[in-house]
Amino acid sequence: MALWSLAALAQAPGPIRLTPVRPAPPPATEVKPAEEPKEATPAESEGGAQPSPGVLTAAPNPAQPGIQVDTLQTFDADSVGILAAADGALPTTLWQGTPRVLAERLLGLLPALPEARVGRELVRRLLLSPALPPDGPPAEPKLLVLRAEKLAAMGEIAAVYQLLKSLPPRINDERLARLRLDAAYLLFDANGACIEIRRALGASQSEGAQRGQAFCQALAGDGGKAELSLRLLSEQGFKADPTYDALMEALIHGTRPKLAGAKDLRPLDLALLRAAKQPAPPDAATVRLPAVWWPLADSPSTEAGMRLALAERLETAGLWSVAQRTKVILETDLPAELLDNPLTRAEADSSARGRAILRRALDRQQTPLARAQVIDKALALGAKNNVYAGEARLYAQAIRAIVPSVDLNWFAPAAARALVVVGQLDAARGWMQVIEAPRDDVGRAAADRLWALARLAGGDALEPWRNDRLEAWADRAKAQAEEGSRLARLLALMGATGEPIDGRLWRDLVADGDRRPVAMPSPALLPALVEAAAKGRLGEGIALVALALGETRLADLPPPVLEPVVAGLMQLGLIAEARALAVEAAVAAGL
Fold first, then answer.
1. CB 53 within 8 Å of CB 84
2. Which pTM does this prediction carry?
3. pLDDT for residue 50 is more than 50
4. Domain residue ranges of the chain, discontinuous segments joined by +
5. Is the confidence at residue 512, as pLDDT, over 70?
6. For residues 6 and 369, what is the distance between their CA atoms, to the nearest angstrom?
């Protein structure tokens, strides 16, 4: 079982409900010194008592004359998924009408780090939903391998682990075994990792399995056995591994390892770093690999500022929940002087630490007025530092706990906007009823933007149609190029969600010489998306949506891309997801 570099994840072949439900990650298993990891029961080691949902297919069973024989059902590994309907599972017919060869190609092309959270969550649901395989002759569980590898490249470590541990014992694939072991390392499930190592040693004495064995021995407190295993590696002619050797030395003898950097750390190295209670390399915060972010953000040994930044990044990417990010914020040691004057301190610190100061300060406030002041500041700074959506999610629960009132009418626009952005429309409606009629041009412009977001998010369910608001916005935009560009994007998104846009508004936005470079997908991609959506080919359509969005910043995607993507999701029946993507794209552009 070969060791592999995390850098390969970024090159692996290859975005939702408004509030997605995600399976909880398996708990980390700390192995105490001088305690041998216990062998799991067969149910634990081979997938647990509850098997993964799959789709059973009928297998032909020829009967003898005169004998009635029911057909048996066979298990197709490619159909396996861990999502139930309540978790957002897609229909089992999601690949109907798509050739298998095309499905495999689309899965391999999926972006590993999509910018759009909605697109990312759609891909996650696509990869984790139980489904009938697409049309075409099966060869091996190739679709399952492609799905698992793509999930790993996306940083969906807990989902990969849960998916692969749920497989029946007879599904034996070297690539799946490697992914399962690496996920155990990254989640610091030492017991699960050591079970995988013993299984691998039973099959071969590979270098990776032997290095894993030494890790398990050291974790169990048997440094002597671990050092003997290391000597045997050398005697067998395996090349020295400076990073692994330094981390093993740190685990066994408590030394401080010298590491070249974080980008080349492998899953076993990260597990060793956690086990030896060593801080992350200084460059870890710059590494664009989710598989590195997860174990370092979860480790108490990681430097506080870096840990806060990684936790924020994981939540922004949809890999961690708000609760996981909040846990890191609350348990991070922040100097008392930072919390004594939090509004000023946070204003001066645009990093994740500054945002953590405000979140910690919120818990010190007892009155609705004081809590609203902290939240208002946090949302304003989030918009200033281009992390608004993440701050809206962080404070949504606290906003809901404040009863809308006329006394807090100054806070109502900020509260309503945040709740609209996170999809909590019922709560947003209460704050929108508090908002007074704006008295000046600045207030009216802000009110128009909030109305537009509300229309994108909920249509008539949240705000009535007001064509006069768009006309007033268009009048202001004639003298402001940036506002005109923002309105054009809004009109495209509104049109995609079925709003009755007056064509005269487009004419008023045409500007002489308005040329700019834009990020466009392959010429074939958008027509393919339109055709897949029209024919209702759900899996194919979601994959094409993800490819159209790519890893490009949503703010950089032009209306000619966003409009067919949102419209395609609407046509595929993913209405909530289409509206959430439209809101996400509008907020990314500064709406």
1. yes
2. 0.84
3. no
4. 334-418+429-436
5. no
6. 47
Distance of CA 186 to the CA centre of its chain: 16
Give the whole-angstrom CA distance, residue 503 versus residue 505.
5
| Rounded (to 5) percent helix, strand, coil in the chain | 60, 0, 40
Residue 261 zone, left/alpha/beta (φ > 0; ψ -120 to 50; rest): left
The Cβ of residue 65 has, within 10 Å, a number of other Cβ atoms equal to: 4
Q: What is the 3-state secondary structure (H, E, C) of 208-262?
A: HHHHHHHHHHHHCCCHHHHHHHHHHHHHCCCCCCHHHHHHHHHHHHCCCCCCCCC
Question: Residue holding tokens 């050398």?
Answer: 234
Q: Which ranges in 276-387 belong to alpha helices (H)? A: 290-298, 304-316, 322-331, 336-340, 342-348, 352-362, 368-384
406 vs 55: which has the higher pLDDT: 406
Residue with the larger pLDDT of the pair 17 and 350: 350
Residue whose C-alpha is closest to residue 556's, from 485, 479, 483, 453:
485
Q: What is the pLDDT of residue 336?
A: 80
**Amino acid, single-letter form, for residue 532:** A
Q: Give the CA count within 13 Å in the CB-facing half-sphere of 431.
A: 28
Q: What is the CA radius of gyration of the chain?
A: 26
For residue 372, the model assigns a pLDDT of: 97
**Do 355 and 378 touch, CB atoms closer than 8 A?**
yes
* Cβ atoms 543, 108 nearer than 8 A: no
Contact 35, 59 (CB under 8 A): no
The first and second tokens of residue 227, run together, are: 């050092």
For residue 549, which of 16, 119, 11 has the smallest C-alpha distance? 119
CA distance 278 to 46: 32
DSSP, collapsed to helix, strand or coil, labels residue 527 as helix
Place of tokens 């071969």: 204
> How far is C-alpha 298 from the geometric centre of its chain's CA atoms?
16
How much of the chain exceeds pLDDT 70, in percent? 86
Q: What is residue 356's predicted lDDT score, i.e. its pLDDT?
A: 95
Give 457-473 as a DSSP string. HHGGGTS---HHHHHHH
Cβ contact 496:585 at 8 Å:
no
Q: What value does the mean pLDDT take over residues 408-432? A: 93
Helices (H) and strands (E) in the chain, counts: 29, 2
Structure tokens that stand for 526 in this block: 């958008």
Spatial contact of 524 and 544, defined as CB atoms under 8 Å apart: no
Task: Tell me the pLDDT tens digit for each residue of 361-391.
Answer: 999 999 999 999 999 999 999 999 999 999 9
Residue 79 has pLDDT above 70, yes or no: yes
pLDDT at position 27, please? Answer: 42
Spatial separation of the C-alpha atoms in residues 68 and 221, rounded to whole Å: 61
Find the range with the poorest average confidence among 52-61, 306-315, 329-338, 515-524: 52-61
